[in-house]
Amino acid sequence: MNIGTIKQNDGGIFVGKITTLTIAMTIALREVHSANPRAPKYEVLALSASRAWVQVGALFELFSNGTGEAFLNGKIEDPSFAAPLYVSAFRQEDGSFNVVWSRPTRRRDLASEMAPKADDGLPPLPGADETVGVGMGAGTGAEAGLGQSSAEHAFAG
To answer: Which residues are bridge partners to 25 per DSSP?
Structure first.
């Protein structure tokens, strides 16, 4: 889903807007100069309510497996967000970028995949139907090892 556009202004700075149902921000990209090949290509800056530029993320340059075409990928984060905003920016013919949003895919839960299935045809394990009588949650008051409560007598009406 396209949520914004970034264009290069007359000064050569990439500036744009990102708009969703809950976010409306003006952003700018500042190129990162680093010898580290794993460094981001751009820092993402957002214009705050006090009209100051604040760093809110980074974009890394990646290449499409199919076409080899370069695109930017990263996230925008702020304490006011419920979750990070994962974005990709794709260069257009006019030199601008279309910004699209994506939800990260969840990693598979290996523990649940390795757990035996309930319908695997095996009989239940011995003692699987028994409840544990020791420890937290096994009962209340004296049954749980907490002793007798005097509260019931103090609040009797």
So the answer is: 18
CA distance 104 to 56: 18
Segment holding 111, helix H or strand E: helix 110-114
Tokens for 5, please give them.
């556009």
Whether pTM exceeds 0.70? no
Q: How many residues does the chain have?
A: 157
CB atoms within 10 A of CB 144: 14
Show Cβ contacts of residue 102 under 8 Å, excluding neighbours closer than 6 positions: 86, 87, 88
Per-residue pLDDT tens over the stretch 72-117? 999 999 999 989 999 999 999 999 999 999 887 776 665 666 665 6
